[in-house]
Amino acid sequence: MNKTVTINISGIIFHIEEDAYDSLSKYLSTIKGYFSKTDGGNEIMSDIEARIAELLQARINVSKQVILMADVEHVMNIMGKPEDFGAEQAREENIAREERREHSDERIKRRLFRNPDEKAIGGVCSGLAAYFNIDTVWVRLAMFLLIFFGGLSLWVYFILWIVIPEAKTTADKLAMRGEQANINSIFKSFQEEAEDVKNRGRRQYEDVSKTVRDNLSYARNSTAGVLNTFFNIIGRMIGLFLIFLGGILLFGYVTSILGISVLDGNNDFTHWRKVIFESSTDYALGVISFIIVVGIPVMMMVYAGVKLLFRVRYNNRWLNLGLGVLWAIGILIAFYVTMSTVKQFNENSRLKETTTLHGIGDTLVIRMNPGTKNVKSMQFENNDDIDNYLSNNHGGYFFGENNGHLSVIGFADLCVEESNSDSIELIISRISRGNNKKEANENAKAIEYTFRQDSNVLIFDEIFTVLEGTKFRAQEVDIKIKLPKGKVVYFDKSTKYLLNDIDNTSNTWDGRMISRRWKMTDKGLECIDCDGLDISDDEDFDHHPRRHRHPKDQVIINDEGIEVNGNETKIRIDEEGIKIKTPEKEIELKGDEKENSGDKRGSKES
Amino acid sequence: MINTENTSKNEGASERAGAQAQMRKGVLELCILSILSQGDAYPTEIIDKLKDTRLVVVEGTLYPLLTRLKNTGLLGYRWEESTSGPPRKYYKLTEIGEQYLKELQLSWQELVDAVNKTIELGKKF
Predict the structure, then answer these.
(1) Furthest-apart CA pair in chain A: how many Å?
(2) In whole angstroms, what is the distance from residue A96 CA to residue A85 CA?
(3) Residue A263: φ, ψ to 5°
(4) Is A84 an interface residue toward B (CB < 8 Å)?
(5) Which residues of A touch B85 (CB under 8 A)?
(6) Domain architecture of chain B: domains with CATH
(7) pLDDT tens-digit profile of A443-471?
(8) Which of A202, A407, A520, B85 could be joined to A54 by an S-S link, Cβ 3.0–4.6 Å?
(9) Nearest residue on chain A to B73, alpha-carbon basis
(10) Residue A153: CA atoms inside 13 Å, Cβ hemisphere, count?
(11) What is the reported pTM?
(12) Residue A98: CA atoms inside 13 Å, Cβ hemisphere, count?
């Protein structure tokens, strides 16, 4: 009966008799001794072990499961004596020495070359592929695709062709695929440097007495320990925070992508993307760039958080590089889509239609046709909704159903100016932008806007619509009424949000010009029925912040006396006496009844 | 070579054996590259082919050589699962390896021609 040992060779479990084990382990350690100083010694060892495992496995079967001395001897016969390895080893060293003389460094650092053996044009792509250790096909494909970004890769290729040298000699070709300068090698050189610094430091400390040194090193160690723990905790907290934040962002990200792709139905976003992007390709590219540009940082955030929290040291360089490149491509796509869309707003076109109005008489009345009369909108149910919206926003666009067609809807603006002739002129401008003058023109033509004249009343639509199928290109409708001198215009209450920046003599805000009659004079529009009414925009602080002060909110001292006007309280001192007026009370002290006032009058008379 | 006369018989024998080994191993490199130029192979396959030619008797010498050839960029490798035993390392010739092989074959031919000529010359006398 023999004792057996269980061993693991190259990941395979063997049961081996003890004496056979002793012999095998001695054999392996002797071989290892030969390769311990060779480059790639570990690799050679593991290759040899794998082969031994293979050979041993061939020697066992269902009936014979234990490795015997004879099996080990068989393996040693096949593999050869350690001395044979040694003979090869000696030669290896000679060759290595020779090679070192040739290349100065046996391990050749990887360098970027153009590859002349595998070139389509200049060997740039295959050189890059060799440097990044990827298939040339991908580099070429990327280059080809980048041509469509304004011929970007053509320039890049040309520059690289000039800058990168061609691999001419065998040494160049070796360097083209040589050892990469990666994180590990950088770290290694850093480590060597640190070691060097430490050694120098030690030499300096040698004069210092032992106690001091011990104390110092103790202090240093404990401080370092505390600091390490501190940074450790901080690191984990940052990791946790990153996961938390990244998680929220990731949720928003996934939801928005689902919103874009799955719920692509009857909602505002869907309508907008149909009228803003010039083509569905642009839209698709926009979505792709969003997925890439937003997705990668968010996912990296979570990834970094997990790494910090669980102190994972794993670092996949290719993943990082790949994601970096992908992100850059995403940015390029986003840039392209933005440029392509912005380009659609390049040119401006303004279609003017001038109508001379007849039969108005002296007073022109302007009224408005409420927006919801023509259009069923999703955003606004009734006119109050529109009014509410317009009181906070000037203009803006929304979607509505116009005669069964879904279209972009905007608000018209109206303004009154002095006419050069004797007749009232109405100028309606339809304005739009476009990629070029022609397209801008067509987009402007697609604006539908109507008005009606009913004797001296002009009824304007509050809104304009854009023909279905036309893109949104910042369409506008400007109405200008040219009013001759002496004529009067009356703005109906309904026009409150239609009026836009109408100059007038009293500097009244548009919203307060309604329900009033305005006459065109030499100085401009002048209100003719505002007497006794507060028409200046004094109460509308929001619109003219400079005119904040109430005109009555002041102290006046003149020949007549003293007048103090508060917001609600008024004090007036004059020859009639003293008058105090508050919301609750009104006190009047007549000058005749008081001696003091008599004196006052006397003194005034003298 | 002059010194060989003065050294003991034993040392001379070992040196001769060393020279033989050197020669054999120099040729070995060419043989390995040639075998791999016919198709990818893993060490045992290479060994089997070499054993037919009697260039290699033991397998152990092959591994350091393969590793060195791989590290200099002449060979590449990939892992392949094996039905019996651990995964196998399949070596293949790189482009540089192929080029190097061509150069080696050329200089080998030159060497053989030169040596043959010299031997022929020697026979005439």
Answers:
(1) 149
(2) 16
(3) -90, 40
(4) yes
(5) 12, 50, 53-54, 57-58
(6) 26-124 (1.10.10.10)
(7) 898 888 888 888 888 888 888 888 887 88
(8) B85
(9) A174
(10) 15
(11) 0.42
(12) 6
